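DNA topoisomerase IV subunit A
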Amino acid sequence: LLNSPRRLNTLLKKEIEADAKEFGDERRSPIRPQEEAKVVNEQDMLPSEPVTIVLSEMGWVRSAKGHEIDPSTMSYRAGDSYHSAVRGMS
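Predicted structure tokens:
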């Protein structure tokens, strides 16, 4: 039985159906057939948003949402300042 995944699945299915028939009711958790799983593209799940990546003189990298950012006015650590920035999409 353990060597045959098909037989094991059949046994599990029969046991679950028997339990549902014996103990199941219409109260809260009916057992229903599951719909077939759908393939989802990861890119469809992640939003693509404009971002600005900023590099400081001391080598710190940070990102800010949007392209309307003026990186030279951002706050930096003591003794550090703006070096360069690039715009992209997340």
